[in-house]
Structures are given as C-alpha cells and as structure tokens.
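Thread: quick sanity check before group meeting

JM: Hey all, I'm pulling together slides for Thursday and realized we never actually wrote out the predicted structure for the chain we discussed last week. Dropping the sequence here so it's in one place. If anyone has concerns about the input, flag it before I start.
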Amino acid sequence: MKWLMNLLVHSPVYPHWLAVRKTDQANEVVLRGLSGDVLEVGAGDGARKESYGKKYSAITSYLATDYSTWDDEFAKVNKDVKKFQGLGKILFGFKERIALDQVCSATNLPFESNRFDVHLSFEVLEHIDDPQKFFFEATRILKPGGRIIFSVPFLFRVHGGEPDHKMDYQRFAHGFFHRMATLNHLQLVQIYHNTGVGTTVATMVNQWLIRRIMESSILARAAFLIISPVVFFVFNVVGYIVDLAPDVRFATRFHVVYQKIDTL
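JM (edit): ok, ran it. Output follows.
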C-alpha cells in the first residue's frame, strides 16, 4: 500500500502534483546556496527544517517557529486523514509533524537584532494582519547582508481559520514588494514566478473537488470520488503544458528575495 501511495503522489493523478512540482522548482531557485543561521517563521508542521537541513549542508543552525503549536488544527487534520485512511493523506498532502523549536509571533520576534543570516517564510504573509511590522522584525533580526526569502499566494483560494477564513487577510503583488523594500532598508533581489493560468486553474479546480469529496452527501461524495482521478490528471497535465510559458498576470504565487543593505 505504501509503494502505491508513493507512486500516486508522484503522478498527475495526485491532486497537488502540479502545485507541489511548481513550488519545489521555485524554491530550488530562490533557496540556492542557503547557508548560515536560518530562522523560519510560520513553520507549521516543521517539515522543512529536516528536509532543508539535509539538502543544504552549509546551514549552521535552523530555528523553526510559529505563533501556535497548531495542536487543534492538526487534530482536525489527523481525524480526517484517519477517516479517509490512505486517501486522506493523498487529498490533504498530509505530512507527519515535527516539533517546533519555539512558539512566537512573526511580528514580535524574541531574538536579538543582527542574529540570523536568513529569514524564511512560506505561504505565511497572507495570514499576517500587519505586513509592515512583519518585515520590520524580519529585517531587524538579520545580519547586514542577510536575506529574507518568502513565498506568497496570488491567485489562490481563500483559506485560513476555516470556516470563517478570519486568518486570511490579503494577497500581494509587485507594487507591495517594492514598497516593503523601500520602507525597510532592503534591496529587492528577485521576484520569481513559474506559474500562470495553467497551474492556477488546475489548483483551483482540484482543491474545489477535494472540498466536494469532503463536504458532500454520501452519494455525491461517491460520484466525486469516481471522477476525481480523471479530473486531477487532466487538469494537472493541461496546466503543466500551458505553464511551460508562465504568465505573471495569472501566477498562482510569487517567490521573493530581499537582502538587508544596512542596520536599522
């Protein structure tokens, strides 16, 4: 069974196949040469600490933090994963938890100034109600020349704090990235995207179908389950082909790199 799941999650039948593929490719670009003392905020399940520690041998230390342990949220996910057994892991893209190093707010970091070489966050900024304070703190704790590397969704479903979505505040584009650089003594090194309408539509449709499987009546759920492998496969493959030529106007997400150019 485990080998079959491994095969599925590395094929277009897996609903998150294209989104994960594009995200991993983008991370390869912006994280190239990751080294030194690294701080990750909004680390969630903590999985990146282990994987990046193995991948980037020049990392000296890696602190994974989040403002919550997410015990309640992970309990809900575990319940749904157990309910759907192996299918639950496929639908949710579920990964085992790794303990966080520290629970703290990304807008009030309990670390001294000029301590870290890299500040990382992935799909976090849309959940921050004060982005300027987020970047002020990120800049403060960095050594001169240190980097802020982050990804944010652009054309992506509302999410965070379900069912009311009270933890999803905004989406960001190029003007915002330039403005934050100016306000926080940062050099904007790179705004990277490798997606367009193909990945965006595939992600939206596949996530919509997952919700229908989770939330519909038993008969409707069975029907959605039957058609889902074909739908996932078609939209992932077509989306991949379309986004061989990415289009910034319809990007699913952006990956951004800043460099600290002086002290505050």
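AS: nice. The radius of gyration is 19 Å. The chain has a mean pLDDT of 90.
JM: adding both to the slides.
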